[in-house]
Amino acid sequence: MGDFGKCPQNHPKNHYKKERDEVRMKDERKATRQSYGEALTKIGKENENIVVLDADLAGATKTVLFAKEFPDRFFDMGIAEANMLSTAAGLATCGKIPYASTFAAFAAGRGYDQIRNSICYPKLNVKICATHCGITVGEDGATHQMIEDISLMRTLPNMIVMSTSDDVQTKWAVKEILKIDNPVYLRLARLSTPIIYEQGQKFEIGKAIQIGDGTDATVFATGVTVAEALKAQEILKNKGINIRVVDVHTIKPIDKEIIIKSAKETKKLISIEDHNIIGGLGSAIAEVLTEEYPTKLVRMGIKDTFGKSGKAEELMKYYHITAQDIILQLTDF
After folding, report:
1. Any catalytic annotation for residue 204?
2. Do 47 and 171 have their domain in common?
3. What is the pLDDT of residue 22?
4. Which residues pair with 50 in a beta bridge?
5. Predicted confidence (pLDDT) at residue 26 exceeds the cutoff of 80
6. Which residues lie below 8 Å from residue 71, measured CB to CB, with a gap of 6+?
7. Domain range for residue 175?
8. pTM over 0.70
9. Inter-CA distances, 326 with 26, 212, 272, Å
10. For residues 197 and 190, what is the distance between their CA atoms, to the nearest angstrom?
11. Which residue among the candidates 28, 48, 81, 287 is catalytic per the annotation?
12. DSSP label of 49
């Protein structure tokens, strides 16, 4: 894992179940940005060194929950993302643990220079928690639909990149990254998605979760597309096609072991993401396969184009990142 060898292994192997036979998604839905705000408030009670910065979007990013509980440790920096990230870097040098939040388009986009030079280069302990990622931002349109942030962030030395799929996993991630003295980019969604995991599910940074052991195909998914992959898994099972779903919640460092294992054990490989297919999850997986176990990978995602304004669910259909699109890839298998 290179420089990430210091990531804590907090779950002993006998307590950490990497594979699951199945999950039953609940009817309850919640946006991971909401889970983030709730988790942030909880850990704020446990660690007084946590400070939160936002760029005039606290209501949308849900950092408002922390602000109400800890007004003296919350800083609204206004519409000045570069300044917010530079200030976060300064706070980190003073022993504080800053969680800096805004929309992904502004965090990874407007703040890239500050993230690169002020946070990653000196390897400062700043947690960049970017909400409203991907085309599922919806009606805000192409300018706000950040489909390049995984690509930008994973190429930065010293940066850990995560993209969580549900309420349980997000709350774990918000707390878990507190334990790491390292820059982190945590990608969060506006769209409400099903709750996938039971309370108490064990996760580990850098280790993906395999759901099912089908050998017909592996679908690697991250963020909002994990729920879509699981829907497809259930429908395909009724058609006699058994697939496994791999929830890649940590994109950097990527779980090479599970990628190679899946390539050896399944007949077809697919990646699906709410992100440009260039530089995102699919690219990260393809890099591993090219070096370790050359195999064809079908990359599903935004095909090197900008987004459009529309309802999130409609846009997912338009850009072919739904359960039905996965099924179409496999029904003539």
Report:
1. no
2. yes
3. 59
4. 97
5. no
6. none
7. 30-194
8. yes
9. 21, 16, 8
10. 19
11. 81
12. T
